[in-house]
Amino acid sequence: MLPAAARLTRSQEFRLVVRRGRRSGRSRLVVHALRPDQAPEPGRYRGEALPEAEANTAPTRKSTGSTRVGFVVSKAVGTAVIRHRVTRRLRHLMRDRLAALPAGTLVVVRALPAAAEASSRELGADLDAALRKLRVLSPDGPATGSR
């Protein structure tokens, strides 16, 4: 289980990461990551005032420097039992990788339908590859939790 301080919980947080962060897709999942240095300046957008539609994409919590993760597993992945199983696997895999990510990084992991039949090892390999491509996980660091 992820500690409460390590979870993305509000739709504004998910929206911020998906819209402003970088994305890396794999066959079973898509990872969106927003590093602290990429976060938009509150109240400013490219030197202008934020448009009204973008005003609620600012982070909703005070930045404590902790890495936070959220998961998106849609009905396209499968029934509720399968979706929850995929979410539990991804949560366990991300828990093992939290310490290796830079402090303050926000991550959203979106499962694709192929994740339903994937083993934890396959999900872990896809997760590691996506995080390395996004340059939030060191390329020479060992893959943890991908048994």
Automatic annotation (TrEMBL):
Protein name as catalogued: Ribonuclease P protein component
Sorted UniProt keywords: Endonuclease, Hydrolase, Nuclease, RNA-binding, tRNA processing
Reaction(s) the record says it catalyses: Endonucleolytic cleavage of RNA, removing 5'-extranucleotides from tRNA precursor
GO cellular component: ribonuclease P complex
Regions of compositional bias (Polar residues) in chain numbering: 57-66
Disordered as annotated region, ranges: 37-66
MF terms (GO), sorted A to Z: 3'-tRNA processing endoribonuclease activity; ribonuclease P activity; tRNA binding
InterPro entries according to UniProt: Ribosomal_Su5_D2-typ_SF, Ribsml_uS5_D2-typ_fold_subgr, RNase_P
HAMAP family per the UniProt record, alphabetical: RNase_P
Superkingdom in the source lineage: Bacteria
Organism: Saccharopolyspora hirsuta
GO biological process: tRNA 5'-leader removal
Quaternary state and interactors: Consists of a catalytic RNA component (M1 or rnpB) and a protein subunit.
Enzyme Commission number(s) of this protein: 3.1.26.5
Summary of the function given for this chain in its UniProt record: RNaseP catalyzes the removal of the 5'-leader sequence from pre-tRNA to produce the mature 5'-terminus. It can also cleave other RNA substrates such as 4.5S RNA. The protein component plays an auxiliary but essential role in vivo by binding to the 5'-leader sequence and broadening the substrate specificity of the ribozyme.
Protein family according to the UniProt entry: Belongs to the RnpA family.
